[in-house]
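re: that chain from earlier
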Amino acid sequence: MEPKQIKDVKLLNFGSVSSFNEGKSYSKDSLTGYFIHSDSITFIKHQDIFEGIIGLTFGIEYYLEGFDPLTKNEDVHFISKIIHPLITNPETNQSGSETIEHKYSYNNQINYDYITFEYDWEIKPGIWIFQVIEDEAILLEKNFIIT
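^ sequence. v structure.
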């Protein structure tokens, strides 16, 4: 096991999001078959309870604190996990209650994770939990409620 690289993860913001210059990276780890990435995001409203509708985008912004605060470009690998009610993609019959993305970034910098409801079948009421994980240790957890 590699030594830990992340000292702490600080939640900076959460809520509804507007994203810019989105792109897709195809992955079997997503029920849609891809992850959406953006060059930048803006938080529109600071809230954690949402009505589930197509087009809803919500997420978190956080700071990965390294052990040396002066080091800005130390590569770090971590997992971004979203735990959610069971979802089934009707085209593939693939089901899941969590979405896991392996991320590579840098310590002492800001990161963000978000989700957009693009399809009716993605919208499930209940608790949606965003987690940042390093070596199986949950370093940050933020709950959202979808009604």
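DSSP finds no helices and eleven strands in the chain.
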